Amino acid sequence: MNFGSVCSGIEAASLAFNPLNIEATWFSEIEDFPSKVLKHHYSSIPNLGDMNDLPELILNESIEAPDILCGGTPCQAFSLAGWQQGLIDSRGQLTLKFIEVADAIDKMRIKNKKQPSIILWENVEGVLRDKTNAFGIFIAGLSGLGEEIKIKRWSTSGVLFGPKRNIAWRVLDAKYFGLPQQRRRLFVIATPKNINPEKIIFEQLMENYETFSNLEKLYKNKNTLDKNLFTQPESLKNERVRHFNDHKIEIFREYTDCLYSAYGTKWNGNAAAYNGSLYISQNDKIRRLTPIECERLMGFPDNYTLLDKATDTARFKAIGNSWAIPVVQWIAKQIQHYKKLNKSVTWIDGLLPYEETDLYKLYLFPKDIIKTTKGENINVSPASNNIKLGNIFDIVHLSAPDKFYISAKASHGILRRKTTRNINMNPSLEELFMKNCIAVF
Question: Which of 130, 176, 392, 408 could bridge across to 180 with cysteines, CB 3.0–4.6 Å?
């Protein structure tokens, strides 16, 4: 199989897909630094630049119509009706263009007597709560509907059977795929009408159903994993300090907050400055994560973004904007595994749709487990059946340059904001900040 990638960034998709013999046929990225990363690692794969040019290139057969289309477009306010009339709202232009790319690919694949493509789209979980109903517009357009689907509240998983494509979506958290990072992202799978996408993005539960019936308890525990629900490495059980040769490493939580693109410049003004999840203490001195540690936190190889003259800020931004590689690779494996399943029967036969018209059926799943009419238990939670928990000590890079350590002045500023704004702070972190800023007083 092969794939085309839009909004390619630094190509987490390639690192996830290539080990499974799914290789890129083209990229589409316009940002300068990510484009340099692509050229460095994938010099034989063309970067086509602006994705707005892709439909014409595909229809002219200048580029291949791949088996899989993947991307994570900005999903802001836009109008499906405006798109159909050729009046694209600039804020949602790329998301609507993504639909055009998908349609062009399928048109050419059908012309060449090939199966229409499988589509993978990623976005932040917040798009489900967008006040402009961006998600309802997007999946309506992707499924072949001419009008948006309006509902009061989108669930974190669901299925839409539309006139052109079937669509299933699920929020997945990298924290349960072997990375010590809480990173919840929405993944959408769209397929031809003869494929049931819920069998790709959801999972059938067997003997471990009782474990998953308690998932809600796990998610409600924000600061520490429930030790009674899942087996985890001994190193994660109440351990906050480790010694590596002459280095004392202290962590403040078992997993980090979501790594964000502005981490390189705004590390001291958000929740991470108070809960300590994006800090490490090395020999009792607090420091930020290094670019290598951020690469490890996303599943990238060490120094993947280390190019000649690359700035730390550019590396942080590119890494934070990318995908968690183990999650995407799990989805790729699910796509391959689908070939072995009974494709003629959907798992949700007999379930009552949330909404049904002559053109579509919509199913919303507000709970972590679907119980089908046949007595099957289907996992639609943010965790896969085989939960893997990462160890934050494994991402530590002991040779951190001095520039990543928090100065006394910065420590004082963080503590001052904590006091004036009455913000709670991790006690161990606060104690170290106090020691660190004594020189200011």
Answer: 392
223 CB burial (10 A radius; 0-12, 13-18, 19+): exposed
The count of C-alpha atoms lying within 13 angstroms of the C-alpha of 287, restricted to the half-sphere facing its C-beta, is 22
Contacts of residue 206, defined as CB under 8 A and 6 or more positions apart, other chains included, come to none
Q: Tell the residue number behind the tokens 């909404």, with chain if given.
A: 355
- Is residue 198 within 8 Å of residue 348, measured between CB atoms? yes
Q: pTM, whole model, 2 decimals?
A: 0.91
Query: Which architecture characterizes domain 2-206+323-379 according to CATH?
Result: 3-Layer(aba) Sandwich (3.40)
Annotated catalytic, 75?
Answer: yes
What string of pLDDT tens digits covers the 441 residues of the chain?
Answer: 999 999 999 999 999 999 999 999 999 999 999 999 999 999 999 999 999 999 999 999 999 999 999 999 876 555 555 555 543 456 567 888 999 999 999 999 999 999 999 999 999 898 898 888 889 999 999 999 999 999 989 999 999 999 999 999 999 999 999 999 999 999 999 999 999 999 999 998 865 555 555 554 554 444 444 444 444 444 444 588 999 989 999 999 889 999 988 898 888 877 888 999 899 999 999 999 999 999 999 999 999 999 999 999 999 999 999 999 999 999 999 999 887 766 666 788 889 999 999 999 999 998 888 888 888 889 999 999 888 888 999 999 999 999 999 999 999 999 999 999 999 999 999 999 999 887 554
CA dist 291 and 299 (Å) reads 12
Distance CA(74)–CA(433), nearest Å, equals 37
Question: Do 42 and 21 meet the contact criterion of CB atoms below 8 Å apart?
Answer: no
Q: Which position among 75, 258, 294, 437 bears the catalytic label?
A: 75
What residue has token string 């202290």?
250
Beta strands 241-244 and 247-250: pairing type?
Answer: antiparallel
Which residue type, as a one-letter code, is found at position 288?
A: R
By three-state DSSP, how is residue 4 classified?
strand
